[in-house]
Structures are given as C-alpha cells and as structure tokens.
Amino acid sequence: MELDRTVQRCTVDHMTTTPMTERGIATRGRIVSTAADLILERGARGTSLDDIRAATKTSKSQLFHYFPGGKSDLVDAVATLQAERVLEAQRPFLDHLDTWESWLGWRDALLAYYETQPLGCPIGALSAELARTDPDHAATVIAHMERWRSYLEAGLARMVDTDLLQPSIDPRFLSMKIFSALHGGLALMTMFESVEPLRAGLDAGLAALREAA
Prior knowledge:
The protein is mostly helical. The protein is built from ten helices and no strands.
C-alpha cells in the first residue's frame, strides 16, 4: 500500500540520522501511521506497544529496531506525523497569513479538514493528554503546538509591518487569542460531535483580527 506522503516525509527525516532501506522506510511509516490512529482513538496511555505490534503484525525486536526508546520514541514520531498532517491541511494559507484573503482561506481549510476528523484535533489531544500524564515528555509534543501558533504570529507581524493592523498590536498576544478560539472550538466540536463550535471559534478569532485593523 502506498505510504501517506506525510508519513513518508517524516520517515525520510528520520533517515538523516538512521539510514534505512526502502523497505525499512515503508515498515517504519506503517507502524507510525497505525500507532497514530490507535493513539487518536484510545489515547497514548490507552495504547500499549503490544496493541501496536498486534495491529501492525510486527515483532518486539522489529519495533525496538525502529524505535530504540520504545513507546516514548514512538509517541514522538506520532506527534511529528500528526503535526505535519495538521499543518499540511492548512497550506498554502498557513504560510501566507498576511492578507485578509489568506485568513479566510485558512479558516475554510481548517473547517474542511476537521470535518473529516470526527475524533477532534490529533496533535491537540495528544498534547493535552501528555501535559496531564507525562509532563517531562509533554514538552517535546507541545512544541508542535507552539510551532503551529508561531505561523499565526508571523503573519500578524507582517500585517503590522504593512499597516493592515494597528502598530500598537502585539502579534504574539493576538495570535494566542486566535489560537485559543480555534482550540476552544475544537474541544467543543468533539463534545458536541459537530463542526459548528469550531466554525464559531474561528469566526470569533477572525473578529478579533478585524478589530485590530
């Protein structure tokens, strides 16, 4: 089965320190992709290495060959995969959040993506779970959330520079306000099993953006 392009990219990135054969790339990518689905459904604590081995039909030695640190390494790989999937779903708008049109396109791209994600935000859910259950390990995963937010801040900073926003605006604070509205909507979307809370959260975030014009 052809690998998801994001899975393949994440696996190739891993190869920069650990060269692998094409078969090894495919096997590691399949393990990460399957583990991502299980963790999204059951949570990191509710998913064991035995669960992943059974679902991927891999041996214990094979699993530790690709993930020497065991579950910790695998969760990191899953977080990277999920973060890349989420960011990719927002492109090309995410890279150019410095016009009103790009922000509207970003909003629509997020709505379209999360309509296909009935279990909510994969990277947000993983970050929240690890923050509660594994604070030492959570920082690595939460960094993906901060990277996501930083795209918003960068676009807002450019809008200040081009006089689309007031010069007194703090891009970091405004990006956090929009990001919080987005993730509040995502949390309620999961609870109500409807995309409408996400739509409302995004619209609230864009309303705050308009107020800063």
